[in-house]
Every structure is written in structure tokens, then in C-alpha cells.
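Hey, resending since the last one bounced:
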Amino acid sequence: MPSQDGLLEAALDFSSAVLAAVSVASVDHGLSAAQGRLLGILLTREPRMSEVADLLGLDKSSVSGLVARAETKGLVHRTEDAGDRRSSRVALTEEGREAATRLAVDLADRMVPLGSRFSTAHRALLAESLNEAAAALRRTDDSAVEEA
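The C-alpha cells again:
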């Protein structure tokens, strides 16, 4: 059933367009779509493997394989989590940081048509709204996990 205000359809359409841009850009840089998403996450943090799984929506074994392949390419490395020795964190290598930065620049270039359609004020409002929506969805997902 379609939503009354079209928000669901617009969000799904936007999400699909962004994921398609990430996929194409990743392949253009010799990466899989999942590796491109992984590098994007690691640009701003050094998460635990379980956090990577949550952020990518993958199970832990899939993330282990993804990280192992990225390690083989010299893009990431695992470190022991000082707070929990049973866990490991994932971080970019210098080569990985360079690859992630190139990918981010390429994605920013691909997003120029989006930005050129809006004024500076509208872009700021859109960014704020998207960040709030993502945070709300994460809180909803976290609540569902806690209830299970």
C-alpha cells in the first residue's frame, strides 16, 4: 500500500539511487559495492566488526569475509579492541584511506547534479532532514533488536 504523503516511496527511490551511485563508483575504482561501502564507513570511524555488520546490514560471517578480502587488497587492517579483547576493530590502512578518499571525491562529483538543483539553504535542510531520518531509523532498529 503506497504511503499517503509519498515519503516512503521517495525515501526508497533516493536510497536506491544513492546505492546505485556507490556501486558504480566502487566498481570504477576496482572495488565491489560492499567494499566501497566499507571504506566509506571507515573514513570516519574504527568500528568493531559487529558494528560494521550492523551498518552494512550483513551477518557477521559475511563481514568477516568482506574484511578479509579488503585486508588482502591492503585496504584495511584489524586491531584488538582495548575495551573487549574478544572483539576486533577495523581500520583503514594508508592505502585504504587514499582509496576511500578517491572514492568519496568521485561520489561527491556524482552528487553535483543533486546539489545544483537546490539552494544552499535547501541543501542544508535536506542534509539535516536525511541525518534525522537515518538516526530515527537506527533508533527504531535498535529498539527492535533489544525487544527480540
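The first strand starts at residue 76 and ends at 81.

Sorry for the duplicate.
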